[in-house]
């Protein structure tokens, strides 16, 4: 059986989907300073990687959310992965826009589903969970029963756990920040001092705000 947590962490590092820079932090759109930048969108350009991700997501849904009736992709990065997973599971697929269209029927959910159907949402990355939970709320408003969220990677920030708990929606990811920095250290990408900085950020991301 494949250890997806380790395999996907290695994949993300090898293709450059993740960049670690503990000594020169990035600034996220939120303004938060971070020693890591993740762009999982590039995974779709690597057939072996995107296939392994799809296999892992499908296996996770089978194990964690076996009652799933519809797979939903969160725009935009979750859409291609949701398509691959829906195909593997032979389930209907929909995708959710970040906001309703400002023309036509004003849809936010594209695709066909029946109110009351059990929906699993797929996204590429979880930080605080804000965007995917907005998508979940939109789906619930249209009558879908959101039974879970599955993503490729999580920063494991406390805010995500709190936000999903408040929404009453379980979530899981193929790999995570802890596994990724462990694999980076094993590969020699970072040294012990950098590993310590990376661990410190996860424990208190807000403390890096003025760095």
Q: What percentage of amino acids are in beta strands?
A: 15-25%
The order of strands across the largest sheet is 7-6-5-8-9-10
Biggest sheet character: 6 strands, mixed
Low-confidence stretches: none
Tally of extended strands?
10
Distance between the termini: 42 Å
Residue-averaged pLDDT:
92
Fraction of residues in H or I helices:
40-55%
What would you call the structural class?
A: alpha/beta
Overall shape: it is globular
Output the keywords.
alpha/beta, 7 helices
Tell me what the structure shows.
Helix 3 (78-89) links the parallel strand 5 (70-74) and strand 6. With 211 residues, the chain is of the alpha/beta class. The strands form 3 sheets. It has a 6-stranded mixed β-sheet with strand order 7-6-5-8-9-10, with helices on both faces. It is globular, with a radius of gyration of 17 Å. The longest helix is centred in the first third of the chain and has 18 residues, at 47-64. 40% of the residues lie in helices and 22% in strands.
């Amino acid at each position: 059986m494949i250890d997806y947590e380790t395999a996907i962490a290695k994949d993300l590092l090898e293709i450059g989907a993740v960049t670690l820079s503990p000594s020169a932090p990035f600034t996220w759109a939120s303004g938060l300073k971070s020693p890591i930048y993740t762009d999982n969108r590039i995974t779709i350009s690597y057939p072996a990687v995107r296939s392994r991700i799809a296999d892992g997501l499908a296996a996770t849904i089978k194990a964690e959310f076996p009652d799933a009736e519809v797979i939903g992709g969160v725009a935009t990065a979750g859409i291609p992965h949701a398509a691959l997973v829906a195909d593997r599971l032979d389930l209907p697929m929909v995708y959710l826009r970040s906001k309703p269209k400002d023309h036509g029927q004003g849809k936010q959910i594209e695709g066909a589903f029946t109110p009351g159907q059990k929906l699993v949402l797929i996204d590429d990355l979880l930080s605080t969970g804000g965007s995917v939970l907005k998508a979940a709320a939109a789906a619930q408003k249209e009558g879908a029963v959101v039974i879970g969220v599955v993503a490729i990677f999580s920063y494991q920030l406390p805010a995500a756990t709190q936000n999903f708990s408040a929404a009453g929606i379980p979530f899981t990811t193929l790999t995570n920040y802890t596994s990724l920095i462990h694999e980076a250290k094993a590969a020699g990408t970072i040294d012990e001092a950098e590993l310590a900085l990376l661990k410190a950020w996860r424990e208190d991301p807000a403390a890096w705000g003025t760095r």
